[in-house]
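Data availability (excerpt). The following record was deposited with the supplementary files.
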Amino acid sequence: MTKICPSCNKECDTNHTFCPHCGHSAPSENETPLHENGVLSNSLSNSNLEPMRYFQFIIYFQLFITAGFCLFSAFSILTSEAFHPSLRYYPEYETKFKVLRISYHVAMLSLGVDALVTRWHLANFKAKGPTYYIRYLIVNTVFTLIFMVWSNILLSEVGLWANQIFTVAGIIANSIMALACCIYFDEREHLFVN
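Predicted structure:
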């Protein structure tokens, strides 16, 4: 048996307390949603609405942008001449940096595909969706850290240094997001049932 969510007008099972589509408190079996001219009304109190705006940001914006950035980075680094413009003066290090570039290409390609897979799991309210997202953030952070250290070690061998302020900021942001998402998804674990 199903019931209609008063917020998004989609069907949800009677055993769901919250709508798996929008997070709104689903009407109980004996409660009828309010109608206005034959259309379900959204005038119910927002106190019943389980906040899902961050979730919508994740699945509709952040994971798409991240996937796009990773895939763009994967192909642009593979086609670029060097990791650092001054490296053309150090041909003896070309092989080391080529290995770094190819490794970075594979990692970014993997992260881009993983972002899209994770987005699919979250958007379809799969039970493992939140776990996939937190795992994605952790793997992204670890890859970023590895490549930051690896590239700086190679650059320091030739007396160069890369400005990594944005990389460090990304590592910190991903770490904070992973911790925050653990709490966020724990409170909403009942929504991920598919």
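Summary of structural features: The beta strands are 2-4, 11-13, 35-36, 39-40.
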